[in-house]
Amino acid sequence: MSESSLEGRLNLRAAAAPAWLRQQILELVPYAALALIAAVIFGTLSTHPF
Fold first, then answer.
1. Chain center to CA of 7
2. How far is residue 42's CA from residue 31's CA, in Å, rounded to a whole number?
3. pLDDT on residue 19
4. Sign of torsion, CA 32 23 21 2?
5. What is the mean pLDDT of each run of 10 residues along the chain (50 residues)?
6. Nearest in space to 26 (alpha carbons), one of 39, 37, 17
């Protein structure tokens, strides 16, 4: 299988994703970022370097 046909298939799959799925992912991104920030903050608070 050639590389160009594989790229074409992957692009078709990405384009075929339903709009509601894209919308849900875009709505979850800010919450995921906040959860990551909170995890880093609480993780650093729980360690006592001194």
1. 21
2. 16
3. 87
4. negative
5. 62 70 93 95 77
6. 17
Which amino acid would we find at residue 15?
Answer: A
Tell me which residue has tokens 């001194």: 50
How many angstroms separate the Cα of 48 from the Cα of each of 22, 31, 42?
Answer: 41, 28, 12
Predicted confidence at residue 37, as pLDDT, reads: 96
What is the C-alpha R_g of the chain? 19
The pLDDT assigned to 15 comes to 63
d(CA 13, CA 6): 11
Tokens 């919450």 appear where? Answer: 31
